[in-house]
Design goal:
It contains 3 helices and 10 strands; from the N terminus they run H-E-E-E-E-E-E-H-E-E-H-E-E. It is an alpha+beta fold and 157 residues long. It has 2 domains: 89 residues, Umud Fragment, subunit A; 38 residues, no CATH class. The strands form 2 sheets. It has a 7-stranded antiparallel β-sheet with strand order 1-2-10-3-4-8-9. A 3-stranded antiparallel β-sheet has the order 6-5-7, with helices on one face.
Length: 157
């Protein structure tokens, strides 16, 4: 066998294995929920998620099978708080100790609801806080549903 043919076969085998293992994935951002960090039509590199921490940006499928990109706000065991207004609307409160105390002073303790992220789940938010469909609406997501974690921003189309 000549060297060119062997080299081509090796390259094809390498590419097939690379595609099969998929250590990295290109993801195209759609929508404005992660602005200003990520913009629509921006291409990013993601890798399979082995460990997920607060602050990571993750890729997962929602209940409709759509691919979603959000930032991890809280991980299993973290507490987060909501203020429930008189008209029944819920507003997420910054979970720092001082913010929670300030909210209790401002609204009263009966209107503050404490939640804990269950094991093997995460709470995600979009960086564009006022224009994001995230855990404030659909709740925590299973760690098993996380497909990738963003590694690097690459290119804008």
């Amino acid at each position: 066998m000549n060297k060119k043919l062997m080299l081509r076969m090796f390259l094809i085998l390498f590419l097939l294995m690379f595609m099969w293992l998929q250590p990295y994935k290109l993801v195209v951002i759609v929508g404005e929920s992660m602005m200003p960090t990520l913009h629509t039509r921006q291409i990013v590199i993601a890798t399979k998620a082995k460990e997920i921490r607060r602050g990571d940006i993750v890729v997962f499928r929602n209940d409709f099978g759509e691919i979603v990109v959000k930032r991890v706000a809280y991980v299993a065991g973290d507490y987060y708080y909501y203020h429930v207004s008189k008209n029944g609307e819920c507003e997420l409160i910054d979970s720092s100790y001082n913010s929670v105390l300030d909210s209790i002073d401002l609204y009263g303790s009966k209107t503050i609801i404490e939640n804990k992220v269950p094991l093997k789940k995460i709470y995600v938010l979009g960086d564009n806080y006022n224009n994001s469909d995230d855990s404030r609406r659909f709740g925590t997501i299973e760690l098993a549903d996380v497909m990738y974690k963003l590694v690097r921003w690459v290119y804008s189309i």
